[in-house]
């Protein structure tokens, strides 16, 4: 089987291996490509694996040998699945590979605002401890997570993983989702969205981006939050009205925001988050632990093998092979 890997640099910089995929067939790989070069890169390959590259009907028609589109991702909005179905092309994603990685990063963003360890380390590096007359100093306020309330907006697999860690820290956990706005599950209490925003000390977003969740965090919901509360977003940038978040930060309506995802990526040089008060941004890396990316590549290889053997798995289209 001839296999084209596109977007190679979004999965590895050499720190994880494509060997499981290379064992399945003859592989050629490319880093980020402009759309005009995509069809030529795929060429006569039977399979293509992409992360964010768009596989359109036009690309499929230009690559008549193409029978399998795999994703280095769970989301597949960059694939024209209907066009693939019409052409008998199998489309497979990778669900659930990054749950622990995203949950860990979510807690890391929360801990930034609670413990300020990186700020204190930077202060020490600048010589502040050397100049201090006391054995310790309190340049930044430090808070305990224990006893605080975490509000989880979107209670799927990742939301549940975050709740488990938060409970271990001694936090009270409330959550809301499309199907859960009341009742409880174990130690987690379900509430409606407005109650969650108004009650939580930390609001963490874990919902998919849909027409219903687009800009769920907006001027109105931010106004419900405590001025001491922190917003965490490791879901999708479009779940927030980014300018409304900036305005709330700069006006002191919320204490801070830990952001891993933006509406437009990579970040543009004039993005208002760069100058917003108490805004802590990481470059969409929550999903990308060594373990998660190794797991991702392994499942992609399994998807290819299952397709080759006539029993495709993790299919997102109507065509199952």
Walk me through what this model shows:
The chain has helices at residues 19-22, 35-42, 57-62, 81-86, 99-115, 117-125, 128-131, 157-168, 193-199, 219-224, 242-250, 290-308; strands at residues 2-5, 26-29, 47-50, 68-71, 90-92, 149-153, 172-176, 184-185, 188-190, 202-205, 230-233, 256-259, 279-281. The protein is α/β, with parallel strands linked by helices and 321 residues long. It has two domains: 2-97 and 290-308, 3-Layer(aba) Sandwich (Rossmann fold), CATH 3.40.50; 99-281, NAD(P)-binding Rossmann-like Domain (Rossmann fold), CATH 3.40.50. Strands 8-9-7-6-10-11-12-13 form an eight-stranded mixed beta sheet, sandwiched between helices. Helix 10 (219-224) links the parallel strand 10 and strand 11. Helix 5 (99-115) packs across helix 8. The chain is globular and about 70 Å long. The model has no long low-confidence stretch (mean pLDDT 97).
